[in-house]
Design goal:
Elements lengths: L1 H9 L4 H13 L16 E3 L2 E3 L3 E3 L10 H4 L6 E7 L12 E4 L4 E4 L8 H8 L8 E5 L8 H12 L5 E5 L14 H16 L7 E5 L5 H13 L4 E4 L19 E4 L3 H15 L5 E4 L5 H9 L4 E4 L1 H6 L2 H16 L5 H4 L4 H4 L1
Length: 350
């Protein structure tokens, strides 16, 4: 009840102010404490990481790694923070975050606003023990060598995280998505893998892709993922599409996330699952707001899922409910583990 009241109050504020207040609540221990639900059925592994459950927090919520203590008590099986860039940057001009309440969606055009890798590495070095934590890697808007930026952040922050995600799919940094082409992406990832090899303890490297890719682009992504020995692909980031939206904010520029993204992102996930045929694991993101959504992503090929926008509307208590309900759904369908369900309905979602 207190969470419902708090969410109602937060919606009275500008969305970015409300987000800052939510981060502050996590820092101060004012958010609900949700035990990390787990079971033999929910425990899973991805890229060598042992997850207590397959429901994670997507990048973008805790950009500056200031709320990990609170997030460690929010029920997530793993969290991803950032994106971090080599140098601090303010991001795009405000307003840059919009609630589309009628659509249960969000549009953002933040533009990788963050405190920079030095400050973020310092905070990551003090992260809560036992919380599986990944860092989203970004590039500075004004950089002369964006390829090198990703490797720089990994080299600096890699010792303090369990995995890192190369983010070339944000629509809010000009020409960033151009790096998803086969040649450009192969070159970028080669530099990242070199930086990974130089770490005292090499960590898994993931790649986050856009949902607005055509079949040819997806085939190239699959080839690069295999050639570069990626540990996982995160499908997907936000979309530029605006089909069927009702909110008066629908024409704002930026990336759309939330419920309207579910079908598009799940189709990309299933198609990539078909192309990769189990050679690279997948993490499903986009529109997850209940246990059925999470289960559908798993059936479409995801070994784990992430969410973010649903928290805007339902709060962090949603995490525990999704995990508990997912366990029941898996049991009802006769699955003894997450791994048994992965990709069982790929063709349905393609």
């Amino acid at each position: 009840m207190m969470e419902k009241i708090s969410l109602r109050l937060l919606r009275a504020f500008d969305p970015e102010v409300a987000h800052s207040l939510a981060i502050k609540a996590l820092q101060m221990g004012l958010s609900p404490t949700i035990p990390i639900a787990t079971s033999a059925r929910l425990k899973t592994k991805i890229a060598g990481l042992s997850l207590p459950n397959p429901v994670g927090l997507a990048a973008g919520f805790d950009k500056n790694v200031t709320a990990l203590s609170g997030l460690s008590r929010s029920g997530f099986g793993f969290v991803e923070v950032g994106a971090a860039t080599p140098l601090p940057q303010p991001g795009n001009a405000k307003p840059r975050l919009f609630r589309l309440s009628e659509d249960r969606a969000v549009i953002n055009r933040f533009g990788f606003n963050n405190d920079g890798m030095a400050a973020i590495a310092e905070r990551l070095s003090k992260r809560p023990k036992g919380l599986i934590t990944g860092l989203n890697l970004g590039a500075n808007k004004a950089s002369d060598d964006r390829d090198a930026d990703f490797a720089k952040v990994l080299a600096h922050c890699g010792p303090y995280v369990d995995f890192a995600t190369v983010n070339v799919s944000s629509p809010n940094t000009e020409k960033l998505r151009d790096l998803q082409g086969k040649d450009a992406l192969g070159k970028l990832l080669a530099g990242v893998m070199k930086a990974r090899a130089a770490l005292k303890v090499p960590i898994p490297i993931f790649l986050k892709i856009a949902p607005d890719l055509d079949q040819a682009a997806l085939q190239e992504i699959a080839k690069v993922a295999i050639e570069q020995n990626l540990d996982a692909v995160v499908a997907t980031n936000t979309t530029l599409a605006r089909v069927g939206l009702k909110s008066h904010h629908r024409d704002e520029t930026g990336g759309l996330s939330g419920k309207p993204l579910f079908v598009r992102s799940t189709r990309i996930l299933a198609e990539l699952s078909h192309l990769l045929a189990g050679r690279v694991p997948l993490i499903g993101v986009g529109g997850v707001s209940n246990a059925q959504d999470a289960y559908d992503k798993i059936c479409a090929g995801a070994s784990a899922v992430q969410l973010y926008s649903a928290l805007v509307y339902d709060g962090v208590s949603l995490v525990g409910k999704i995990v508990t309900d997912l366990d029941r759904i898996l049991e009802r369908h006769g699955f003894a583990s997450i791994e048994d369900a992965v990709g069982c309905r790929v063709q349905e979602f393609r």
